[in-house]
Design a protein that fits this description.
Blueprint lengths: L1 H14 L18 H8 L2 E3 H5 L14 H17 L2 E4 L6 H10 L4 E3 L6 E4 L40
Protein backbone atom coordinates (compact mmCIF):
# COMPACT_ATOMS: atom_id res chain seq x y z
CA UNK A 1 0.00 0.00 0.00
CA UNK A 2 2.89 2.39 0.70
CA UNK A 3 3.88 2.42 -2.97
CA UNK A 4 0.33 3.45 -3.87
CA UNK A 5 0.35 6.17 -1.21
CA UNK A 6 3.66 7.48 -2.59
CA UNK A 7 2.09 7.67 -6.07
CA UNK A 8 -1.03 9.34 -4.63
CA UNK A 9 1.09 11.96 -2.87
CA UNK A 10 2.91 12.57 -6.16
CA UNK A 11 -0.44 12.95 -7.93
CA UNK A 12 -1.60 15.46 -5.30
CA UNK A 13 1.62 17.44 -5.65
CA UNK A 14 1.44 17.41 -9.46
CA UNK A 15 -2.22 18.48 -9.34
CA UNK A 16 -1.10 21.77 -7.75
CA UNK A 17 0.07 22.70 -11.25
CA UNK A 18 -3.09 21.60 -13.07
CA UNK A 19 -4.39 24.16 -15.56
CA UNK A 20 -6.64 26.80 -13.97
CA UNK A 21 -9.82 28.15 -15.53
CA UNK A 22 -9.43 31.43 -17.39
CA UNK A 23 -9.76 34.57 -15.31
CA UNK A 24 -13.23 36.01 -15.26
CA UNK A 25 -13.62 39.10 -17.45
CA UNK A 26 -14.20 42.13 -15.23
CA UNK A 27 -14.40 45.85 -15.86
CA UNK A 28 -11.40 47.69 -14.39
CA UNK A 29 -13.48 49.31 -11.65
CA UNK A 30 -14.30 45.84 -10.21
CA UNK A 31 -10.76 44.51 -10.31
CA UNK A 32 -10.22 45.36 -6.64
CA UNK A 33 -13.01 42.93 -5.68
CA UNK A 34 -12.02 40.22 -8.16
CA UNK A 35 -12.16 37.37 -5.62
CA UNK A 36 -15.63 38.29 -4.45
CA UNK A 37 -16.93 38.69 -8.01
CA UNK A 38 -15.47 35.33 -9.03
CA UNK A 39 -16.95 33.67 -5.95
CA UNK A 40 -20.40 35.17 -6.43
CA UNK A 41 -20.69 35.15 -10.22
CA UNK A 42 -18.06 32.75 -11.49
CA UNK A 43 -18.64 29.45 -13.19
CA UNK A 44 -18.94 26.42 -10.92
CA UNK A 45 -16.50 23.54 -11.32
CA UNK A 46 -16.39 20.12 -9.67
CA UNK A 47 -13.33 20.26 -7.43
CA UNK A 48 -11.99 17.04 -8.94
CA UNK A 49 -12.09 18.64 -12.38
CA UNK A 50 -10.22 21.69 -11.08
CA UNK A 51 -7.51 19.40 -9.73
CA UNK A 52 -7.53 16.76 -12.47
CA UNK A 53 -8.28 14.06 -9.89
CA UNK A 54 -11.06 11.52 -9.37
CA UNK A 55 -12.53 9.92 -6.25
CA UNK A 56 -11.56 6.45 -7.41
CA UNK A 57 -7.87 7.35 -7.06
CA UNK A 58 -8.29 7.47 -3.30
CA UNK A 59 -8.50 4.25 -1.27
CA UNK A 60 -10.92 4.04 1.68
CA UNK A 61 -9.55 5.74 4.80
CA UNK A 62 -9.52 2.48 6.73
CA UNK A 63 -6.89 1.08 4.34
CA UNK A 64 -4.38 3.79 5.36
CA UNK A 65 -2.39 3.82 8.58
CA UNK A 66 -2.15 6.94 10.76
CA UNK A 67 1.09 8.20 9.16
CA UNK A 68 -0.28 7.69 5.64
CA UNK A 69 -3.51 9.50 6.52
CA UNK A 70 -1.61 12.45 7.96
CA UNK A 71 0.64 12.66 4.89
CA UNK A 72 -2.22 12.46 2.38
CA UNK A 73 -4.41 14.93 4.31
CA UNK A 74 -1.54 17.44 4.48
CA UNK A 75 -0.86 17.09 0.75
CA UNK A 76 -4.59 17.36 0.02
CA UNK A 77 -4.74 20.61 2.01
CA UNK A 78 -1.69 21.95 0.17
CA UNK A 79 -3.44 21.18 -3.12
CA UNK A 80 -6.60 22.96 -2.02
CA UNK A 81 -4.57 25.98 -0.94
CA UNK A 82 -2.84 26.07 -4.34
CA UNK A 83 -6.34 26.68 -5.76
CA UNK A 84 -7.26 29.24 -3.06
CA UNK A 85 -9.57 26.72 -1.38
CA UNK A 86 -9.42 26.21 2.36
CA UNK A 87 -11.24 23.40 4.17
CA UNK A 88 -12.82 24.54 7.45
CA UNK A 89 -12.57 21.61 9.84
CA UNK A 90 -13.20 21.69 13.57
CA UNK A 91 -10.00 21.73 15.58
CA UNK A 92 -8.78 18.24 16.38
CA UNK A 93 -10.94 16.49 13.78
CA UNK A 94 -9.29 13.12 13.07
CA UNK A 95 -7.40 12.82 9.79
CA UNK A 96 -9.57 9.87 8.69
CA UNK A 97 -12.67 12.09 8.75
CA UNK A 98 -10.88 14.98 7.04
CA UNK A 99 -9.64 12.60 4.34
CA UNK A 100 -13.07 11.10 3.75
CA UNK A 101 -14.71 14.53 3.44
CA UNK A 102 -12.01 15.90 1.12
CA UNK A 103 -12.34 12.88 -1.16
CA UNK A 104 -16.15 13.23 -1.18
CA UNK A 105 -15.81 16.92 -2.03
CA UNK A 106 -14.01 16.14 -5.27
CA UNK A 107 -17.58 15.95 -6.65
CA UNK A 108 -18.59 19.24 -4.96
CA UNK A 109 -18.98 22.21 -7.28
CA UNK A 110 -17.32 25.44 -6.32
CA UNK A 111 -16.24 28.65 -7.96
CA UNK A 112 -12.56 29.19 -8.65
CA UNK A 113 -11.25 32.46 -7.29
CA UNK A 114 -7.94 33.78 -8.58
CA UNK A 115 -7.64 36.31 -5.77
CA UNK A 116 -8.44 35.74 -2.12
CA UNK A 117 -9.66 32.62 -0.39
CA UNK A 118 -12.68 30.37 -0.79
CA UNK A 119 -13.38 28.65 2.52
CA UNK A 120 -15.23 25.35 2.21
CA UNK A 121 -17.53 24.61 5.10
CA UNK A 122 -18.62 21.02 5.38
CA UNK A 123 -21.39 21.72 7.88
CA UNK A 124 -24.66 23.42 6.97
CA UNK A 125 -25.15 24.25 10.69
CA UNK A 126 -28.19 22.00 10.84
CA UNK A 127 -27.40 19.68 13.80
CA UNK A 128 -29.36 16.77 12.30
CA UNK A 129 -27.22 16.96 9.14
CA UNK A 130 -23.82 17.63 10.73
CA UNK A 131 -21.06 15.65 8.98
CA UNK A 132 -18.88 15.63 12.10
CA UNK A 133 -19.01 13.30 15.11
CA UNK A 134 -20.87 14.82 18.04
CA UNK A 135 -17.71 15.77 19.94
CA UNK A 136 -16.59 17.87 16.95
CA UNK A 137 -20.01 19.23 15.97
CA UNK A 138 -19.91 23.03 15.87
CA UNK A 139 -23.65 23.40 15.49
CA UNK A 140 -24.96 21.16 18.28
CA UNK A 141 -25.51 24.13 20.58
CA UNK A 142 -27.45 26.14 18.02
CA UNK A 143 -31.18 26.20 18.50
CA UNK A 144 -34.16 27.81 16.87
CA UNK A 145 -34.64 30.19 19.81
CA UNK A 146 -31.46 32.11 19.05
CA UNK A 147 -32.25 35.70 18.13
CA UNK A 148 -29.93 36.51 15.24
CA UNK A 149 -31.63 39.86 14.68
CA UNK A 150 -30.40 41.35 17.95
CA UNK A 151 -28.74 44.74 17.49
CA UNK A 152 -24.97 44.74 17.72
CA UNK A 153 -23.78 46.61 20.78
CA UNK A 154 -21.35 49.37 19.94
CA UNK A 155 -18.45 49.01 22.34
CA UNK A 156 -16.50 51.74 20.59
CA UNK A 157 -18.79 54.56 21.68
CA UNK A 158 -17.13 57.47 23.38
CA UNK A 159 -16.57 56.60 27.00
CA UNK A 160 -14.68 58.62 29.57
CA UNK A 161 -11.35 57.04 30.53
Amino acid sequence: MQNYINQLVSDLQNAQHHARPAKMELPPELEFVRGAEEYLHGELYPMGKLFGLENMQFPPADRLNAAQLELVVNEFKALWEAFNLYPDFPEGLPNAIQYKLMVEYLNYETSYVTDGANHIEFCSYMPDECPFPLEFCQCKNLNDDTDYDMPIQDNDSEQPF
